[in-house]
């Protein structure tokens, strides 16, 4: 694996932090990098797919937490989800720098590996 491939894997993960500045940036940032580089680098295909699955899952969890704010528990859940997002993304960045694709916990697999993909 080349350093460029690792750097692009890291960029996919780091791009997800754009969601703290831009609405839907946590999905759009990794999506843009993933779509541009997934055919060129198998590692980016894997990192991007894992990151996007997590961020889409997280969006669903945040939406449910927003509804639960009317009962009070949603505030606590939102705080826990924000902490989990930051911690898991930092772990994914570290793993990408090591050349390993991180499987995020609490993830629903919306985007499946493409047929013939050699990186799981």
Automatic annotation (TrEMBL):
Its main location: membrane. It is a multi-pass membrane protein. This is DUF4870 domain-containing protein. It is found in: Membrane. The chain crosses the membrane at residues 12-36, 58-91. The keyword Zinc-finger does not apply. Keywords: Membrane, Transmembrane, Transmembrane helix. Signal peptide: none annotated.
């Amino acid at each position: 694996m080349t350093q460029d491939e690792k750097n692009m894997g890291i960029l996919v993960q780091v791009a997800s932090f754009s969601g703290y500045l831009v609405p839907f940036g946590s999905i759009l940032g990794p999506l843009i990098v993933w779509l541009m580089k997934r055919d060129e680098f198998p590692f980016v295909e894997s990192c991007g797919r894992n990151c996007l699955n997590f961020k889409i899952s997280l969006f669903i969890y945040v939406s449910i937490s927003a509804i639960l704010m009317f009962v009070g528990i949603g505030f606590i859940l939102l705080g826990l989800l924000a902490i989990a997002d930051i911690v898991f993304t930092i772990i994914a960045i570290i793993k990408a720098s090591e050349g390993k694709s991180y499987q995020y916990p609490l993830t629903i697999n919306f985007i499946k590996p493409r047929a013939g993909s050699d990186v799981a």
